[in-house]
Amino acid sequence: MQPILEVSSLTKLYRGSGRGIREVSLRLEAGDIYGLLGPNGAGKTTLLKLITGLIRADGGTVTLFGVDRSLHHEQAMANVGCMIESADFPDFLTAWQYLRQSARFYPQVTEQRMEEVLDTVGLLGVRQEKIKGFSAGMKQKLALAAAVLPRPKLVLLDEPTNGLDIEGTVMFRSLIRRMSAEEGTSFLISSHMIHELEQLCSRAGVLAGGSLKIEADVSGLVLEGGTLEDFYMKQIREKGELQGA
């Protein structure tokens, strides 16, 4: 079966600091929920930006749904939703206006779908309020709503639970599980909330020093009596990457 996402030998190094990623390769299948773990500065956000084309790679390839993103960007990204780094919105818009602007890129998105995603994230009741009055958690929910609005087949999420309260975190888990099980949606999630990832993810990878050190089946770790946190800390210690984590 053709993978949803295939990253091959992806490399991006920043001048001066030398930080970035080196020769990273991974793949996601339909319905995968993949957790990307790593210390601060390990290159997690850089990897997500490279996958979406927000920054240019020094080497390697990104293939989405069998399409080389560097050659056919629009076609490759047509079924991808993303939320990368902190949510940033024009404060003068309402939540409804923002989603309506986002929907212009997806002809299949209806007002009913807009209401559905706002209801799912708990913002339907405040859809006519200006975003400038939203808390950080409310903005995070709106960013998540925009990411899943067109029913994408792959969703990339960078620290998606930042700012969310307990109810918001429970909503997030429920949404991810439902989309994966019912719609076959794949997720690549970068997060420091390792206990959340343990509950959600089918697979996980540890990114440290700009390289993908190891991948593991999460359910297999749990069945063996371990935890994702134990697995992560073991890999970081062995690779000498604990400083700055």
From TrEMBL:
Keywords: ATP-binding, Nucleotide-binding, Transport
Molecular functions per Gene Ontology: ATP binding; ATP hydrolysis activity
Membrane-spanning ranges: none
Residues of the ABC transporter domain: 5-234
InterPro entries associated with the record: AAA+_ATPase, ABC_transporter-like_ATP-bd, ABC_transporter-like_CS, P-loop_NTPase
Protein origin, superkingdom: Bacteria
Similarity field: Belongs to the ABC transporter superfamily.
Protein name: ABC transporter ATP-binding protein
Species, as recorded: Paenibacillus chitinolyticus
